[in-house]
Design goal:
It contains 5 helices and 11 strands, in the order βαβαββββββαβαββα. The protein is α/β, with parallel strands linked by helices and 259 residues long.
């Protein structure tokens, strides 16, 4: 019989349980939620809600058209191009005008503004002078006048000067010339066709000579002749935002410039 001294002693603590026995594992591998370093793991930060800019509703403008009158010879290409870039929501309509009917077009409200021949007689129209055109003598390509680079009034002595109903230079003071015995022609184009046939000469602004250019006629600048001023005009009582915008374009203002 073994002596009591050979019995194993109990430690007083229950034996350690094997893994898998006893209570079920906790989520996360059985750990208590602490990080390996011993500190408690932080919960992921909540994302802040996205707040969109709260802007007032954009009020769309009513569709409209800016009607721009243009007399023959006036050029507005670069201004119209700028308008289309800057004001794509407002269509621009080009209305061709004769110099004789330009003021009536305003009275009839067919146009909002126009490039016109000056001077004007209607005091209700606002005007911004733009530039002055040189006068030129148009004659047959075979005329002796075409031998010079430019002409003086004295060079026209003995020439027959034709006139038209479209004359924008007014009565011409050309000493030594002879008045035409025929009635004024209807248009500048008619007059240039006539002088191309060798009948007389006509004095017009340079832009009109270029507009109606033909191979059998030529033109030369007339030194000392009357100049042809061109301006931008609109009714003072109808000064709209579109008119102001076009004025800014003419004056070279940028889109962000103040008036």
């Amino acid at each position: 019989m073994a002596s009591s001294g050979n019995r194993p002693r109990r430690s007083g603590r229950p034996p350690a349980r094997k893994s898998g026995a006893g209570s079920p594992k906790k989520a996360g591998g059985g750990r208590s939620g602490k990080s390996p370093s011993g500190s408690r793991a932080k919960a992921p930060a909540k994302k802040a809600p996205v707040v969109f800019d709260q802007r007032p509703d954009v009020v769309e403008e009513e569709p409209r058209v800016f009607r721009l009158g243009i007399v023959p010879g006036a050029t507005v290409g670069r201004w119209v191009d700028t308008w289309k870039q800057r004001m794509p929501h407002v269509a621009i309509e080009i209305v061709e005008l004769s110099a004789q009917a330009q003021e009536q077009a305003f009275a009839d409200e067919r146009i909002d503004a126009a490039l016109v021949r000056l001077p004007l007689t209607d005091p209700e129209l606002q005007v911004i002078p733009l530039y002055e055109e040189l006068p030129v003598v148009v004659a047959s390509a075979e005329s002796h006048l075409m031998a010079a680079e430019e002409l003086d009034i004295a060079d026209l002595a003995g020439e027959v000067v034709l006139t038209t109903h479209e004359d924008v230079l007014g009565p011409l003071d050309l000493p030594g010339t002879r008045p035409s015995t025929v009635q004024p022609l209807n248009t500048t184009q008619d007059a240039i066709a006539t002088v191309a046939a060798g009948v007389g000469i006509v004095v017009v602004p340079m832009s009109l000579a270029r507009l109606h250019h033909r191979k059998d006629a030529g033109y030369r600048v007339l030194r000392g002749g009357p100049r042809a001023p061109v301006g931008f005009a609109w009714p003072a009582a109808r000064t709209t935002a579109d008119v102001e915008t076009f004025i800014g374009i003419i004056r070279g203002r940028t889109a962000n410039s103040s008036r």
